[in-house]
C-alpha cells in the first residue's frame, strides 16, 4: 500500500483496524504520521489521538487507550513507534502480549492501531510478529530511487511554478546523494533564493547546499584516482580545516574505495546492488561510472594504501596531513 492509498482510505473512511508501517525514507514516514494524525479533528486530538515510543513509554498506556472507545468521536488513533518487541530485542510480558493479541482479534470499534516499525528488522519467527504481519494493513515506505526523486522534485517545483536547470538538478542530487528526505530539506532555501527568477540555478545549489560527507569522499576519491595530486591535497586540507576529523575522513575515503571494489564484483541493476550492499542505488550508479574510467588494479592499490594510512594514524604519532600528502606522492 502507498501513501496515496492511505489518503483514499482516510477520505472514504474505509479504515482497517490496524496498520504496520515500514520503510527507511524519513520524509515519507513523517508524512504518514501527519496523515494518521489528520484522521482525528484538531479539537479532538487531546482525547482521541496518542503516540507512544515503546523504548521510553512501554506499551501499557497504549494498550489502555486501545481498550477504551473513542471519546465523543468516530475514531481513536493510537501510534506505537520503535516497537522493538517485534524484532529480536525487547520482549513483552505474557499479559501484554495476550492483551495486544486480543486487541488485534477483537478491536474496539473506531479504534485504530498504527505500528511504526520503520527500518526495524522484524523477527518473523515470533508469534506476535506473525500475527501483526498477517492482520495489519501494510504501508511500506522504502527509500525513493533516483528516477523517483527526480520526478518528485519536478512535480513539487511545477506545483509552485518554479523551474530548475538540468545541471542544478544533477548537482543537487550529487550533493544530497539522491536522498529524497535531504532534497526536501534543501528545497525551501533554494526556493527562497530563486523567488524573483523562479528558476533554481547551479550557482544557487553550489552556494546553498552542503555536500554530504559521502559526496565529499566521492570527490576526494575521484581526485586521487585521477592523479590530481595538488587538488586532492588541497581538498583534504580544506575538509580538515572545516572540522572533518582526519580519521573519519580516512574512513570515508576507505569506504569509497571499498565500495568501488564491491560494486565491481556485482552484476544486476543499481537497485539490486544497492540492496545487497546496503547503500543507496545512486551511489552504485556513481561507482559504476567511476569503474569505467579507472583500472581495477589501481583501485585495489589505493584501497591497501589508504588502509595502511589508517593503521599508521591509529598506531603512530604522525601528522595526518603529512600522511595524506605522502600517500598522494607515492600513489
Topology:
Elements: H1 3-11, E1 18-23, H2 26-38, H3 45-48, E2 49-53, H4 54-57, H5 60-66, E3 76-81, H6 94-105, E4 111-118, H7 127-135, E5 137-141, H8 146-159, E6 163-164, H9 166-176, H10 180-193, E7 199-200, H11 202-208, H12 213-226, H13 229-241, H14 246-264, H15 270-277, H16 281-291, H17 296-315, H18 320-330
Parallel strand pairs: 1-4, 1-5, 2-3, 3-4, 6-7
Helix pairs in contact: 1-2, 9-11, 12-13, 12-14, 13-18, 14-16, 14-17, 15-16, 17-18
Give a short overview.
The protein is of the alpha/beta class and 331 residues long. Helix content is 60%, strand content 10%.
Q: Number of DSSP helices?
A: 18
Largest β-sheet summary? 5 strands, parallel
- CATH topology name of the largest domain, in short, is Rossmann fold
Shape: globular
What kind of oligomer do you see?
A: single chain
Domain DNA polymerase III delta subunit-like C-terminal: 216-331
EC number: 2.7.7.7
InterPro entries: DNA_pol3_clamp-load_cplx_C, DNA_pol3_delta-like_C, DNA_pol3_delta_N, DNA_polIII_delta, P-loop_NTPase
Catalytic activity: DNA(n) + a 2'-deoxyribonucleoside 5'-triphosphate = DNA(n+1) + diphosphate
Amino acid at each position: 500500500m502507498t501513501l496515496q492509498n492511505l489518503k483514499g482510505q482516510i477520505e472514504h473512511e474505509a479504515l482497517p483496524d490496524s496498520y504496520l508501517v515500514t520503510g527507511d525514507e524519513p520524509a515519507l514516514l513523517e508524512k504518514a504520521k501527519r496523515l494518521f494524525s489528520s484522521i482525528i479533528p484538531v479539537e479532538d486530538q487531546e482525547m482521541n489521538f496518542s503516540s507512544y515510543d515503546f523504548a521510553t513509554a512501554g506499551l501499557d498506556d497504549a494498550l489502555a487507550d486501545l481498550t477504551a472507545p473513542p471519546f465523543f468521536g468516530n475514531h481513536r488513533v493510537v501510534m506505537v513507534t520503535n516497537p522493538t518487541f517485534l524484532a529480536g530485542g525487547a520482549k513483552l510480558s505474557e499479559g501484554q502480549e495476550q492483551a495486544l493479541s486480543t486487541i488485534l482479534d477483537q478491536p474496539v470499534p473506531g479504534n485504530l492501531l498504527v505500528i511504526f516499525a520503520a527500518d526495524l528488522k522484524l523477527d518473523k519467527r515470533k508469534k506476535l510478529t506473525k500475527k501483526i504481519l498477517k492482520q495489519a494493513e501494510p504501508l511500506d515506505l522504502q527509500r525513493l530511487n533516483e528516477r523517483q526523486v527526480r520526478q518528485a522534485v519536478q512535480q513539487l517545483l511545477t506545483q509552485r511554478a518554479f523551474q530548475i536547470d538540468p545541471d542544478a538538478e544533477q548537482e543537487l542530487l550529487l550533493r544530497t546523494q539522491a536522498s529524497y528526505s535531504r532534497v526536501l530539506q534543501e528545497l525551501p532555501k533554494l526556493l527562497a533564493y530563486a523567488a524573483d527568477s523562479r528558476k533554481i540555478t547551479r550557482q544557487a545549489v553550489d552556494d546553498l547546499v552542503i555536500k554530504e560527507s559521502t559526496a565529499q569522499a566521492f570527490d576526494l576519491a575521484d581526485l586521487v584516482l585521477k592523479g590530481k595530486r595538488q587538488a586532492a591535497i588541497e581538498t583534504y586540507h580544506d575538509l580538515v580545516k572545516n572540522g572533518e576529523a582526519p580519521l573519519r575522513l580516512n574512513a570515508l575515503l576507505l569506504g569509497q574505495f571499498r565500495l568501488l571494489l564491491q560494486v565491481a564484483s556485482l552484476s544486476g541493476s543499481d537497485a539490486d546492488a544497492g540492496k545487497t550492499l546496503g547503500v543507496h542505488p545512486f551511489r552504485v550508479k556513481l561507482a559504476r561510472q567511476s569503474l569505467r574510467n579507472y583500472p581495477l588494479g589501481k583501485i585495489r592499490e589505493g584501497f591497501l594504501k589508504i588502509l595502511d594510512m589508517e593503521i599508521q594514524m591509529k598506531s603512530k604519532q604522525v601528522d595526518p596531513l603529512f600522511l595524506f600528502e605522502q600517500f598522494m606522492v607515492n600513489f
